[in-house]
Specification:
Blueprint (H helix, E strand, L loop, with lengths): L5 H10 L2 E7 L3 H4 L2 H9 L3 E7 L6 H13 L3 E4 L8 H9 L6 E7 L5 H9 L5 E2 L13 E6 L2 E9 L7 H5 L10 H15 L3 H6 L6 H12 L11 H14 L20
Parallel strand pairs: 1-2, 1-4, 2-3, 4-7
Antiparallel strand pairs: 5-6, 6-7
Helix pairs in contact: 8-11, 10-11
Length: 268
C-alpha cells in the first residue's frame, strides 16, 4: 500500500476541477480528511463527499449522513460502488457543474472503495485519452479517461492517510501483514464495533462472547488456527481475519450523526 504525498495530492487537485472524496459511510468521521477538504476548497475547486458502502447500512442512516454533511456546507452523495447503487445520482450531481471540459479526481483513505468507484465511473468501454487541447501539461503520472461528453476522470492512486488517531488510521495506513501489534489493534477494533453493535461477532462468526481477546481466541479455534507445538490459538491470525472481514463488510457496524460528540462516540 503506497500513500500519496501531500505534494502529489496538491498537484492532483490543481489538475482537476472536481474532487470526489470517498469515505466509508459506516464511519465517515474517521475516514474523511479535513486537510484534503481544506486544500480543495481553498483552491477554488468543487468538492463532493461520496459516502460509499451504503449497502452496509440502513438507508435512513445514509440519508442522515447526507444531511449531516449538508449542514456543514458540503455536497454529498451516498452510493455503493461495488453494487453500482447510487452512481447515477453521483453522475447527475457531477453533470450539474457546467464547466466543460471538466476533470474529476477521486481521492480517499485506503479501503473505502476508491478504485471500485473509479472503475465504475470509467465503465467497460471508456478509453484513455491524451491531454486536453490547450490545457496545461499534467504532471500527475496517470491516465485520463473520458467518462462523458466533455467530462474526464484522472485515474491515479490518490490514497491519503486518515486524519484521526482512531484505530481506523492504523488499519488503513498499512498492509495487514505489516501492522505492528496486530492483536492489540484488532482488540481496539473489536471494542469499537461492540460499542455500536453488541451482537456483531455473534452474527458474523456465531461467537457469543463480548471480551475482545475471547472473541479472537474463539475465532482462532473455530478456524483451526492453532500452534503445532502446544495447540494454543494463533490470535494474530484471528486478528488479521477480523480486520479483513471488517473491510469486506462481513462485520456489521455503523453509527449515526447523533452519536458524534455524544458520550457514545469520541473521534480519535
Amino acid at each position: 500500500m503506497r500513500l500519496a504525498s501531500w505534494g502529489l495530492i496538491k498537484e492532483l487537485i490543481s489538475s482537476s476541477d472536481v474532487v470526489l472524496e470517498v469515505v466509508d459511510v459506516r464511519d465517515p468521521i474517521n475516514t474523511r480528511s479535513t486537510k484534503l477538504e481544506s486544500l480543495v476548497l481553498n483552491s477554488g475547486k468543487s468538492l463532493i463527499i461520496v459516502l460509499n458502502k451504503s449497502d452496509l447500512v440502513p438507508r435512513e442512516v445514509a440519508e442522515r449522513w447526507k444531511e449531516y454533511f449538508k449542514s456543514l456546507g458540503f455536497k454529498s452523495v451516498y452510493i455503493s460502488a461495488r453494487d453500482r447503487l447510487g452512481t447515477r445520482v453521483l453522475r447527475s450531481e457531477i453533470s450539474k457543474i457546467v464547466k466543460r471540459p471538466l476533470v474529476i479526481a477521486v481521492v480517499g483513505v485506503p479501503k473505502v472503495g476508491k478504485s471500485t468507484l473509479i472503475n465504475t465511473l470509467k465503465g467497460r468501454h471508456s478509453a484513455s485519452t491524451s491531454l486536453l487541447p490547450g490545457s496545461p501539461g499534467y504532471t500527475v503520472k496517470s491516465q485520463l479517461y473520458r467518462i462523458g461528453r466533455g467530462v474526464y476522470l484522472i485515474d491515479t492512486p490518490g490514497l491519503i492517510p486518515p486524519d484521526s488517531g482512531d484505530v481506523e488510521s492504523v488499519i488503513r495506513s498499512e498492509h495487514i501483514d505489516k501492522i505492528d501489534n496486530i492483536i492489540s489493534v484488532a482488540v481496539e477494533l473489536i471494542k469499537k464495533v461492540l460499542k455500536f453493535n453488541k451482537t456483531a461477532f455473534k452474527d458474523a462468526y456465531k461467537i457469543d462472547e463480548v471480551d475482545p481477546y475471547k472473541i479472537l481466541e474463539a475465532l482462532a479455534l473455530k478456524r483451526g488456527w492453532v500452534s503445532r507445538s502446544d495447540r494454543e490459538p494463533l490470535l494474530h491470525e484471528a486478528a488479521k481475519a477480523v480486520i479483513r472481514d471488517y473491510f469486506d463488510g462481513k462485520i456489521s457496524y455503523y453509527y449515526t450523526p447523533d452519536e458524534v460528540g455524544s458520550g457514545t462516540f469520541k473521534v480519535g
